[in-house]
Structure formats: C-alpha cells, structure tokens
Amino acid sequence: MSGNPVSALGEHPNCAEIVSVLARMVQLTDEQISALALVWRDDDVTAAGRASALDPDSPLVLEALAAFDSLAYLYADDLQGEAPYLTLPAPVTALGLKAVRDAIAAAYARPVLEASEYTALIAPWRGVFPDASVLAPYFGPQHQAVLDLLGVMSSMACRSHDAVAEARWLAVLDSAERVDLERHGHAVDDAWDAAVLTQRRRLWGLASRSGQEAFYRRCAQCERSGHEADGAVLVLCLGAVVGVMMGDVLAEGVRELLVSPLETLIPQQSEGVGH
Question: With a threshold of 0.85, does the pTM exceed it?
Fold first, then answer.
C-alpha cells in the first residue's frame, strides 16, 4: 500500500466493509451492544492488530480516528450512564463500543494487517453481524427532506464567493430576528423528548453532527470556514433539521416553529414536511 496510498474512501479496496460498519454503528440496539460486549476480547494478537491499524501510515487512518470521534459523540449519553432513559449499564456499553472501534480499525486497515490480526479485530463484530450488508441510516418518514436540509447547510459553508450561499445565509439570519429563541429552545427540547421516545436519539446525534460538520467545513477554494458569528444561523438550521426529522410525532405548532426559518429554502419539500 505504501507505493499506492489511498487518498479517498472510494479508492479503498475494502470500501464496502468500511461503509457497512459505519452505517451500522449509528443504529445499534441495546441488545446488539450487549452482544458485542460479551464477545469482545483483548489479547496479544488483537493488541498488535490494533497498533498496526492505527499506525500513521495505515490507509485513511485519520478517517478511522474521525469515526472513533463520531462513535464517542453518538454514544456520549450511554457512556456517561446518567440519563433516565438509559437501560444499559455504562460499563456494558463501553465494552460493546470497544468491539465497534476494533471493527472500524480492522475495516480501514485490512490491506496492511496480517490475516490473524484482521480476524482478531473483526471477529466480535462478525459474530453479531455475520454479513457485510449496508443499512443506510434512515431519518424517518421525511428522510429525503432531512437530507435536503443538510445539503442546504452544506451549501452555506462558504459565502465569500457564492452569491446563492450568501443569499441563503442572509435569509436565515433575517428570520432569526423574528424567532422567539426561548420558544425555539423549548421546541428543540420537545423534539429531543420525541427522539428519545421513538428511539431516534442516535439518529438525532448523527443529523446534528452531520449538519455542524457541513456548516463548518473549510472551503477548498478560499479556506474559509464557519465561525462564531454564524451561531444564530446554525441554531435555526439544526432546529429545522430535527423539526423535519421528528415532524411525524411533534405537535404541528412545534414543528412549524422549528421548520419555518428554512422552509422557503427547500421548496421541493415545503408541502411534504408536515404530518
């Protein structure tokens, strides 16, 4: 691999397995986490494979480490173990996520691992998920509208040389002056409660993280990235994302309060984001 370094996921010879692991990791049930915890083991071969997988020269190692960060973000509440809605003890979750991290490492580093190292790292994951099929995250009845909103956020990542992006950003900023931020905050809380009740809280985390990453992504053309001055726009954008995602179980007034600041920016969905 050293003579032909991988620069993008699409170029990785083990791309399918990587995508499969990353897609499943945001949708794990408590039962699956418990099963992973039961079969995770640490021994010399596994430790050696882990070290090789995280070597600086391992293919796309920075992406693998970023996936570790995403995993910790998505399961932060579970690892703290204090939220009243949790049913799995935090130590069990911690063990289960070790198996997930090993699977991520194995998938990314497979081309440079010894066969025994790869097998040791991936074995707990394969014990629970014997096939490598991809189950893409599904954000609910308004899945496409959520993706569209995340696309809108991404389109506003740089405005210095994009008149359309600037117009969109100004439109959301203008709407911020007409939004009661206290009521908006309560509406976001209602949407979170709905996500907990419908077991979509990790998808909430995925949507929120994806939106923030898109919004603050550094522009390849001018190196500009989001900054603190964009805070109000970001809050309204994320509120719209979760408002659409949870719209099927929210009161109409709550959904409208969250979605309205951005609804005109996604006209193709404006008639379908409701119940």
Answer: no
